[in-house]
Design brief:
single chain; 315 residues; alpha/beta; Rossmann fold; Helicase, Ruva Protein, domain 3; 7-stranded parallel β-sheet; 13 helices; binds ligand FO1
Length: 315
């Protein structure tokens, strides 16, 4: 079984590639829920939904999130009322949040609801939320007046303010009291392959590792763990990972990623554009494997998936 630590779009694309090269039923993905937001009274799980929709070939390819062929009638009417329309929820996507919220109200766990949604979309990969308990990524940014700071929810920063403002600090509210979802620690311990997907190390992989027990479970297998750099040629392929790393004092390069992951992953897959930095990565005590890491299409994702499987050092 392959165990993947996954965030949003980049992880979803690699998982799509892995399903093309191995049996979906042999893949377990532990997915970040720090991005979750409760809005309109609905519990919305962006990373779980992005992974589910991508593996179901139902995701909107352009956006990388939400469903293809969406209509926005609910948003239009909400606009009429002056309701919250900054966080775009398509009419079909809304059904996912309605179903999830109703089931949670009926005391189903997030794990159970996630499995039901995945099954309904024919997704064979086992999807586990990192925890069934609420963990909320909170971002501190500059406040309205000079010298002040304000803390906002992840989506308020990422979408509401277009992740354009610098981040002073990030915390995962509730992480210390959260428990890994059922099966997470066992899957990390028993997997033949452990992969850290090309997701934002700070706010996609970070929350996963903040759930008590998860980081230790991954670190215990460090020499076998293969991470895929989300940074190529000093930039994130999608989203603010590069700027966040710099804002928080890290280097936005494969070397910076290697430093962050050194305690957790013995191998880092880097794109050919960064082949010249392989020695610098290895100087951090992390083995560098060079492979095309830009998943423009399914063939590229499958090729990267093969490279990831081959990158695990033989035991
Ligand atoms: N991203 C945006 O940039 N704008 C949106 O309005 C937006 C809405 C949205 C709704 C549901 C969902 O599952 C994802 C959504 N996203 C949106 C993406 C989301 O903010 C990111 O995918 C993750 O939170 C970061 O990985």
């Amino acid at each position: 079984m392959l165990l993947a630590l996954a965030g949003g779009v980049g992880a979803a694309r690699l998982l799509r590639g892995l399903v093309d090269v191995m049996a979906a039923a042999d893949i377990t993905a532990v997915v970040n829920t720090g991005d979750d937001i409760v809005l309109h009274g609905l519990h919305i799980c962006p990373d779980l939904d992005t992974v589910t929709y991508t593996l179901a070939d139902a995701v909107d390819g352009g956006r990388g999130w939400g469903l293809a062929g969406e209509t926005w009638a609910a948003m239009e009417t909400l606009e009429r009322y002056g309701g919250h329309t900054w966080f775009r929820l398509g009419d079909r996507d809304l059904a996912t949040h309605l179903f999830r919220t109703q089931r949670l109200t009926e005391h189903a766990t997030l794990s159970e609801v996630t499995a039901a949604v995945a099954r309904a979309w024919g997704v064979g990969v086992r999807l586990l939320p990192m925890s069934d308990d609420r963990v909320e990524t909170r971002v501190t940014i500059a406040g309205p007046a000079a010298g002040t700071s304000v803390e906002v929810g992840f989506q308020e920063w990422f979408v509401g303010r277009g992740h354009g403002v610098a981040v002073e600090s990030v915390r995962f509210l509730g992480a210390e009291d959260a428990r890994p979802a059922p099966g997470v620690l066992e899957a990390v311990a028993s997997a033949e392959h452990v992969v850290i997907c090309p997701s934002n190390p700070i706010v996609s992989i970070g929350p996963l590792l903040a759930v008590p027990g998860v980081e230790d479970a991954v670190a215990a297998r460090r020499d076998e763990v293969v991470a895929v750099s989300p940074i190529v040629a000093g930039a994130a392929l999608k989203g603010p990972a590069d700027r966040m790393m710099v804002d928080l004092g890290h280097e936005a390069s494969v070397v910076g990623v290697a430093r962050l992951y050194a305690p957790l992953a013995g191998t880092l897959v880097i794109d050919e554009a960064d082949a010249g930095l392989a020695d610098a990565v290895e100087a951090e005590g992390v083995r560098a494997v060079v492979a095309p890491s830009v998943m423009t299409g399914r063939a590229e994702a499958a090729a990267l998936a093969r490279a990831v499987l081959a990158a695990r050092p033989s035991p």
